[in-house]
Each structure stands twice: as C-alpha cells, then as structure tokens.
Amino acid sequence: TPLEPFLVDTIYFNYCSFCLLDPIWDFGDGTTIEMNNPFYVFASPGDFTVRLTAFAQNTNCPGVAEAVLSVGTILTAAFSIDQTEGCPGLEVTFVDQSLGGLFYSWDFGNGITAAGAGPHTIPYDTTGFYDVNLSAISANGCENDSLFSAIQIYPEPSAMFTAFQVDDCGLPAEVCIQDQSIDAIDYDWTFDLGAGILSSAIEPNPCIDVDVAGPIGIVLSVTNAFQCSDEASLELTVYDEPQAIAYPGDTTVCTGISIPFTSASLNTSIIEWTFTDGFVANDSSFSRTFETAGNV
Description:
The chain is mainly β. 0% of the residues lie in helices and 53% in strands. A hairpin with a 5-residue loop joins strand 3 and strand 4.
C-alpha cells in the first residue's frame, strides 16, 4: 500500500537503523544515494518503491527495508481566456489549465461564480475592470489560487440627435441633423426616404434633400475610440406647401337654408375657416344657415 501522497517536492528520508552500516537508498526511479539521511526530489509523479539497504557491523550481512511512495504533481492553478478586453456585452470563455487539481471554484469578478473545470463562458455587461479568481483543490486537499486581473470593459458611446426641416414646408425639402451624441468619433447615417429609396452620410451633422412629402426614417450608428457602438433612430415627417381647397354646397342661396362647407385642402393638419360676418370654424366639414342676406 503506497504511503500518503507527496507532492513533487523535496522529500527527506531518515535512517533509523541500529548496528547497521553503509546505508544505500534506491528511490525506485534509477537513482541511488549512499548516505544516512538523504533528501531527494522526484522528477515526475508516480508510485515509487524506495528501498533502503544497510550492512551489519560484524558480518556485513545486508538488511533491506522498502516502502512505496505515491508522488503527485504540485498543484498549480491556471487558466486561459479567449479575450481580455471589449465593449459591454463581451462574452469571455475561461478554460482551466491547472495541474493536479480535482475540484475548482471560480469567481469571475462580476458577481458570477461557478464550480468545475469548465470551460465557462461569462458575459460582462458593465464598463470597468474585473479580477478573476480560480481556486483549485487537489485530491489530498492542497490548494492554490490563480488571480488574473486584466479583463477590461470599455465605455460605450451614446447616440443622440435631432432632425428638422429647414423650411417649414415645401418641396424639395432640406432636412438637417443636429448631432447630440456623447463620446462618438465615427458616424454612420441611414435615411429611409420611402419607396425603397435609401441615402447615407458619415459626417456628424449632415443635411439631405427630400423630394417627396411624408415620413422618413433616420438611423444613426456611432462608434467611439474603443470601437464600441450605439444606435439611435427617429421618424421625421416632411411637409409640402399646403393647398387650401374649399367646396361650399352652393354659392348663392336663400336665407334660412343650411349650406354645407367641405375642405379638400392638401398637405395640412390645421384648418381655419373665416367668414366676413366674424364666424370662425376649424372643422374640415360643417354646415351654416344664414339668416341675413348679403355676401360673406
């Protein structure tokens, strides 16, 4: 039965024999030493039969004692990672490379822990620095920690902007952008003008010409110095010149007769009817009865 395991380290042997001389130690790996109390470092792990031979003082008869040593690997906790820096949302894969470990406990520095050799893929969603600790425990309870503190999550830019039609109405319309992004150095604008028509720009505050009234979609993608990105979008309605078109039910009527009025105006959202008698209406269609003759 092997003696309790030893790590690959310096092992001291004590010669306790009486009335015996010239001890010879055979360490079972091809190495022998002639001395009373040697120390020895095994070059590799394994089970070794260590034999001590000594000789009687008067008869020179040999005496032999032996024992089996189980030599294990010195526990070394270590791991590799596939990337050490990136933007929020980065996923890092940790691969155990420990020697002599049997049980593993991980602390990834972001509130996530795990057990077992892995590999473990861990998300990092917040800007900052993170220390990762692996605790490896061998079968005989020896423990060794490895600390790795080089995971950095960079800050993201913030994409923000406003858009406006330079002239309140009329085509072609000039639409301009006012960038309000934070920590952005590169810009990528996409303008959806409708009917499958797209336009793009890369300057911070572009202006474009729009030939068709209606909603246009604007998407901004920005990148910072760390190549982290963010995106923002909005919809802007482009207006053409309004055209006031009115259809009264009749232009000559008798008093006391109800007359319908209907607006067929184009490119407008606000309607105001004004009559010379002081009457004002804001409905697109309505009816009036005039009790007094005259022009209104």
